[in-house]
Amino acid sequence: MASLEALAAAPLKRKVSRDDVTLGAGLGVLAAWLVVSVALPLWTLLSKSFQDRDGGFNGVANYVEYFANPSLSQSIWNSVWVSLLAAAITIVLAFVYAYGLTRSCMRGKSAFRMLALIPILAPSLLPAISFIYLFGNQGILKNWLFGLEIYGPLGIVLAEVFYCFPHAVMILVTALATADGRLYEAAEALGASRLRIFFTVTLPGIRYGAISAVFVVFTLVITDFGIPKVIGGKFNVLATDVYKQVIGQQNFEMGAVVGMVLLVPALLSFVADRLVQRRQVAQLTARAVPLEPKPDPLYDWGMFAFCAVVAGMLLGVIGMAGWASLIKFWPYNLSLTLDNYAFANADAAGWSSYFNSLQMAAAAAAFGTFIVFVGAYSVEKSRAFALARAVSQFLAMLPLAVPGLVLGLSYIFFFNDPRNPLVFLYGTLTILVINTVAHFYTVSHLTALTALKQIDPEFEAVSASLKVPILKTFWRVTVPVCLPSIIDVFIYLFVNAMTTVSAVIFLYSTDNKLAAVAVVNMEDNGNTSAAAAMAMMIVITSAAVKLLQAAVSTVVVRRTQAWRRR
Amino acid sequence: MSQAKTTYLRIDRLFKRFGSFEALKDVSFTIDNGEFICFLGPSGCGKTTLLRAIAGLDVQTSGRIEQAGRDISVLPPSERDFGIVFQSYALFPNLTVRDNVAYGLVSRRAGRAAIEQRVAELLQLVGLPDSGPKYPAQLSGGQQQRIAVARALATSPGLLLLDEPLSALDARVRVRLRYEIKSLQRRLGITTVMVTHDQEEALTMADRIVVMNHGVIEQIGTPMEIYRRPATPFVADFVGAMNFLDGAIAGDRKVRFGGALLDCPSAEGIPAGAPVKICLRPEDVAVRNLGSGTPNRVSVSIADMVFYGSFCRASLKGEGGGEITADFSNNLMRDLGLAVGQRLEVALPPDRILAFRAA
Ligand SMILES: Nc1ncnc2c1ncn2[C@@H]1O[C@H](COP(=O)(O)OP(=O)(O)O)[C@@H](O)[C@H]1O
Ligand SMILES: [Mg+2]
């Protein structure tokens, strides 16, 4: 009976310690940040889509109007089929490419691996500009298209394949690399043909990776704004509709509706991707033996040829923009010049857009890395505040499912509301920083969590037993041990801040225009060569930062990480 | 010097629930000053949960913990007095051995010279005086383990907690470190609690063992008591090798096994006719010096024998039914020329057999 008594009583609660307070404060900061930068803006967007122009609630009237308007709802179908087509082409190319990287003995694998990632350094606008130079009205390869029009679905699909290729390759390489060599040996021992092994072992083995890649690419395409904006011509898609409704027609309510519609495929694929990934984890057992490809000259050189052609095309697209940016007067005077880089001739903001971008990217990377690691640490280490932790975890995952355009739009609604005490941020560089960090929060957060999960979970227990404050252990142990991941997150945020256009297109003001926005503006005004030049500045900067990262990492690792060596 | 035996740690009616799962059920015991206690039990029985409750890392759902007369039931770890060593050691990989050991000293604002002296003293104590400038990754597993102990002892805590401190090491190192930890503990006289699932570790190191199963304490006692007089069939089974023979009570302190009627003082109090399990250690099966007066004699034949190095484990078939496992020393085998198929007389000594009511 006494035991029943004991169990019926409320469970004991640990006395609050200084460390609990520290972690609680970290969690509070994180929750507050995510509520302000993610939850409230999205909530405002959602409610806006149910309001009339005067802010009164009008139920689903906006949605009815949207679906009743064929020119608007047509975009849904346009977006879907273009995204499916681009995803299909990307996956096929990326699969063969990744297959060559992981399952052949071809030469130059590490070079091919790096070349595949090149598109990440560029804003999505760049391939669109390049394809205009290649196949546009005055394109050098125009007659290759046999009269087909590059402005429209064709151009969108081509440019999107370029833009999404690295994402698909990374996922598929991971999936292909985690094969269990024992399965292949068993299949060979049983006398299965190469083709049969491919269909019975290889494809089933990577099915989750492949599904995940399809979803990721589909979402990237359907939510991308830069490419359809530049090369879409009269072909309407959801992403450009949002822009037209809001910026062109100042119809914010309808913009909100389109934004909500755009959220649906992104959310769906986000959920599907989560489910798929959960199943993938269980696939590889600890005893699996890595698969070692065997040399086979004919096949290896075949793979080499394929990868060389694809990598050549990737370089060609970048190179086209680079070359076009140096041409005096396309296509009549092909002599080289740097005039296109005198941006003031094409856009009043001139070079300041570029420097704004640098400043914004540096601030987003610094602030973002800070909040991401402090937040992830608090979520990972605190035991109390279960509700705050759960809410923070959910909100930290949300941005991955929210297209940049939708997030940007929601910021207009939330921060440009005179009743919002934060309204003073509207139109400043600060709001661009906040928006960018929120936009790219999920991947950063997951990177930080992964890094934190890899270090011994008992550091905090040891430090508490030694009466050392947790903050000190965070600073002296956790941060140095996680330094490589901290640098990764910093660079990830920096490069994305340089290249992104979809969210910030709604939020910049003339005083703080960004480089990627300047590309859109200059292209709009017919200054395509200047747009190409600015896009190249972004590529060069991202590439330089990546190279710098490689160099700094080597030095930093040598200097501060001596302990990693045995 | 002899220390007065005083209670240092008092665990009183501890319960711990994870959701609806009860990881600790009504756990109570006390630990004396300077004692070395082992929590022994199979994986998942709640040993770590109990240790973490004592450390304040995961507070119990209900119940009271007193350390040195102070109620520490709900104190956070930073307000308790203990040093801890985890299975992973949790050494800070980016700090040198010296900085690891000094980690808790620095925050106490001791003078620099005093810290250096204390670190040197501790490294000396664990037998690694020159390892100060190295990083943990440069040390072997056994060395890392000793540094973890040095770090835990640095602040001179009143209680040392060890969670499976040896299970990450290979067998040889493990045996050596058992001895080292034990002698270090004796020299310092520090009250110590060690969690282990390895019965040999518990038997060789502990002053007293707390045997746990499914969140309850099965038995508390000295290694000899636990081994000689297991209080429950679980303990009998878990610690050492044990025969579980089917029998039935056949009168006062008598059990029937196969065709034999055995004297069994431990059967006292079990009603006649009740089925029992008769427990007997294989090494307690007597073969030599059996006389006509030797009680509990059984005729058996050797059905099988497996060579274990220092002894042979034999399967004996009772003539009246039943199967007994017995360990024969190499000496005995040679002297008696034992071989498979052979028939012989063995005795099951009354003071060595235990009867438990069959479930
Ligand atoms: N944080 C937790 N949440 C839920 N169950 C737990 C948790 N920690 C331990 N348990 C469960 O409590 C039981 C005892 O665990 P533990 O004390 O770690 O066992 P061990 O004796 O192996 O150290 C196990 O069944 C384990 O699954
Ligand atoms: Mg354990």
Largest interface: A-B, 40 and 47 residues
Radius of gyration of chain A using CA atoms only: 26 Å
- Helicity of chain B, in percent? 25-40%
Topology-level CATH name of the largest domain in chain B: Rossmann fold
Structural class of chain B: alpha+beta
What's the helix-strand series of chain B? Answer: EEEHEEEHHHEHEHEEHHEEEEEEEHEE
The coarse silhouette of chain B is elongated
Q: Work out the strand percent of chain B.
A: 25-35%
Q: What oligomeric assembly is this protein in? A: heterodimer
Order of helices and strands of chain A: HHHHHHHHHHHHHHEEHHHHHHHHHH
CATH superfamily of the domain at 56-282 and 292-316 in chain A: MetI-like
CATH topology group of the domain at 56-282 and 292-316 in chain A: MetI-like fold
Descriptive report:
The complex is a heterodimer of chains A (566) and B (359). Chain A has 566 residues and is mainly alpha-helical. Chain A has a domain at 56-282 and 292-316: MetI-like (MetI-like fold, Orthogonal Bundle), CATH 1.10.3720.10. In chain A, 70% of the residues lie in helices and 1% in strands. Chain A has helices at residues 2-8, 18-48, 61-68, 70-103, 109-116, 125-135, 153-177, 181-189, 194-205, 207-223, 226-231, 238-248, 252-281, 297-324, 352-381, 386-397, 404-415, 429-439, 441-454, 459-465, 470-481, 483-499, 515-524, 528-560, and strands spanning 327-329, 333-336. In chain A, strands 1-2 form a two-stranded antiparallel sheet. The longest helix of chain A has 34 residues, at 70-103. Chain A starts with a helix and ends in a 6-residue tail after the last helix. The mean pLDDT of chain A is 87. Chain B has 359 residues and is an alpha+beta fold. Chain B folds into 2 domains: 7-237, P-loop containing nucleotide triphosphate hydrolases (Rossmann fold, 3-Layer(aba) Sandwich), CATH 3.40.50; 241-357, OB fold (Dihydrolipoamide Acetyltransferase, E2P) (Beta Barrel), CATH 2.40.50. Chain B is 25% helix and 33% strand. Chain B has helices at 47-55, 97-106, 112-125, 141-153, 171-188, 199-205, 223-228, 233-238, 330-336; strands at residues 7-18, 21-32, 36-40, 62-67, 70-71, 83-85, 159-163, 191-196, 208-213, 216-221, 243-249, 254-257, 260-263, 275-280, 297-307, 311-318, 323-329, 343-347, 354-357. A 6-stranded mixed sheet of chain B has the order 6-7-8-3-9-10, sandwiched between helices. In chain B, helix 2 (97-106) crosses helix 3, helix 2 (97-106) runs parallel beside helix 4 (141-153) and helix 3 packs across helix 4. The longest helix of chain B has 18 residues, at 171-188. Chain B is elongated, with a radius of gyration of 25 Å. Chain A binds chain B through residues 2-3, 6-7, 9, 11-20, 383, 456, 458-459, 461-469, 472, 476-477, 480-481, 560-566, and chain B through 13, 15, 17, 25-26, 55-63, 73-80, 82-84, 86, 88, 90, 92-96, 103-104, 106-108, 135-138, 151-152, 154-155, 157. The complex binds adenosine-5'-diphosphate and magnesium ion. Magnesium ion binds at residues 47-48, 164, 195 of chain B.
